Amino acid sequence: MKLFSQYHGKRMLVSGQGPLVENARELGFKNVVTVDELRTAFPVLDMVDLQRRPKTTPLPRNDFPAIEGVLLLGEPVRWETSLQLIMDVLLSDGNPGTGLAMAPYPHLPVLASNMDLLWMAEAKMPRFGHGTFLLCLETIYRKVTGRELRYEGLMGKPSILTYQYAEDLIRQQAERRGWVAPIQKLYAVGDNPMSDVYGANLFHRYLQMAQHDRAKELGAGDLWKQRPSAAQSCTSILVCTGVYSPKALGSTEPAQDGEEPPFHGHRDFSFSPELMEASHIVNDVDEAVRLVFHQEGWAL
């Protein structure tokens, strides 16, 4: 998100939960409005919950600055409110207090992070992630307008941009420690075959192709202005303590017995089933760290 500086000064509607304004500002966005602030300014927009409907019709407002883009940081608490108001902003070209005869297209820029369809918590089955919320928004927009919702940027696993950024953070840490030799082997540990493993394998393929000047074929963005990658490989390690479990109902598992697994990735990423196959499968993170030590020839 920090790389999208052309939007840092624009008035962005931010969706998610937690300290949204503080999080957005840390990423560089200086002028944000939350969904709650928007519904307070225009209470007639939020009509699903009968208890929150205004008892009287408020006067229309014309002093609310136009919204210039949408920033989706994570799944919100009230999905119906966020879906409705985000749609209102997109269909009104940033002026939800007014109505337009025809929805503008292309619509306002949309930036989104965290594309996981599912994630694992204490429940026995995976929970809906922000990827599920994005799927809802995309489906509603297509149903209402007949057009596809477009993103100016998609961040988070399995996006190559995210792994490039992670590699640069690792490189900065190495430099602070005075390590001179470049880090050539990366390891990615995660519990989700469709995001963690798929992204790591996709980045590994990118690193291999980058050596032959064909990396752009994988969709690596032009935003990455850092020096060329020193890494030569990225090894995926899948743990069994989260979304992936060999025995859990609803688990996202790699392909078995020749049957193609369901594609849980984002709409804008092409599906290559072989990229869901982890280089290693271990029980937990402790075993993953021990595996890395063994691979590197380090003593425990």
UniProtKB/TrEMBL annotation:
<dbReference type="InterPro" id="IPR006353">
    <property type="entry name" value="HAD-SF_hydro_IIA_CECR5"/>
</dbReference>
<dbReference type="InterPro" id="IPR023214">
    <property type="entry name" value="HAD_sf"/>
</dbReference>
<dbReference type="GO" id="GO:0046474">
    <property type="term" value="P:glycerophospholipid biosynthetic process"/>
</dbReference>
<comment type="similarity">
    <text>Belongs to the HAD-like hydrolase superfamily.</text>
</comment>
<dbReference type="InterPro" id="IPR006357">
    <property type="entry name" value="HAD-SF_hydro_IIA"/>
</dbReference>
<dbReference type="GO" id="GO:0005739">
    <property type="term" value="C:mitochondrion"/>
</dbReference>
<keyword id="KW-0732">Signal</keyword>
<dbReference type="InterPro" id="IPR050324">
    <property type="entry name" value="CDP-alcohol_PTase-I"/>
</dbReference>
<dbReference type="InterPro" id="IPR036412">
    <property type="entry name" value="HAD-like_sf"/>
</dbReference>
<protein>
    <recommendedName>
        <fullName>Haloacid dehalogenase-like hydrolase domain-containing 5</fullName>
    </recommendedName>
</protein>
